Please model this.
Amino acid sequence: MFNIAIDGYMGCGKTSLMLGLAKKLKDFKILNTGAIFRGYAYAYDKLSLGEVSEDTINTLLEKTDVEVKFVGDDQHVLVNGEDATEFLRTERISQLASIISAYKDVRERYLAIAKDFAKNNNCIMEGRDIGTGVLKNADVKIFLTADEKIRAERRFKQLKEKGEKASLKEVIKDMNERDNRDRNREIAPLKPAEDSIIVDNSDMNLDETIDFCYELILKVMNKKKVINITIDGYVCSGKSTIAKSLAKRLGFKPFDTGAVYRGMACAYVDMGCDETKVKDEKYVKNYADQIDVKIDFIDGLEHVYVNGIDYTSKLRTEHISFLSSKLAPYPFIREKVLKLQRGYAKENNLVMEGRDIGSFVLPDAEFKFFCTADDKVRAQRRYEQQKMMGNDVSYEEILRELKERDYSDVHRDHGAIVVTPSSIILDTTNQTLDKSVDFCIQEISKKYPQFKNC
Model:
């Protein structure tokens, strides 16, 4: 998950920045951590516990349960089952929240809620110690600051718009008390993390602050980590062509897993191996022990080398495809390919296609697409492909072999075709290549908006 931490002083616009970034980043949820503390402060006020102490905090926690729920994109705070959201933004509750948040046991309750949320969501979280305490490993940490007078004027304007009575002098006094308390408390004091990006928005309006931080986040997203996309599915469902086109538009490497297996099948034939013994595990193991498989990309095209020989031009015959399907289930064959796949995926942004990539090879891939199509449509595609290559085959023969291949791929012991719960189904029966790729881009850009115009 991709986590963004926003910390900073009162009156800098942390909450507004969080809301603005969430709109721009789309597939991100927000957690207003201050609202959790305000929920406990609201409960404290309702319980009329008086001056805050260790004893009153213990009573509060014994009698209070705070939950965060989302209604659409709106965060709601439930206090002992009551939706208290609309009561949390008063100055009294804000000041009380600042006081009780310094207590260790209150913070432990809050941390459990916040960390669980970050673990399960791409999220933006704001508060005063998100980058230093709650999300120490956040992908982006922003620390907002601004001139003290400007912050006070912003806070004063905010309170007036809410109809609350306060003077600018009172706001400055309360703000200074809050700043000093937050900076100097023993537990989780307010300060930038060592890797925080300091953003002074004294001379920025809200839109400028949002745009500035959004650009910072996109730069980190582009550099942050390797992104792996898997495309699984049935034979002739369009996996290879979609993978290549998608990779080209994203600027990723296209890894054709089937080509690696077909390259090994080519070498099996080229080395004079007995094709009648393809079911003899010991015989095939001896062949596998003699080969070294590598891939390289030349002008964006994947080339498969076995023992230094480039077999790329020989991969697409029906005979080689059939032979590769017989070799692929062997664990020692798969082990060679798996090592190649995972090693390459670790270092490269790529689109990898096959039949069990998302379910087994790269189970932690960012996006898992599964291609399917009507079997007669798939057979027609293969027939036209073979005719263009000059191969003398009949449609009926291809349909029969395709159904055999489907059965084998679904039922084999190793590397069987599996639709995972996180798979995004792509039915290509009536889809053009461009529409299929557009669909993939649309899904990817929900999480990574920088790709939406690819």
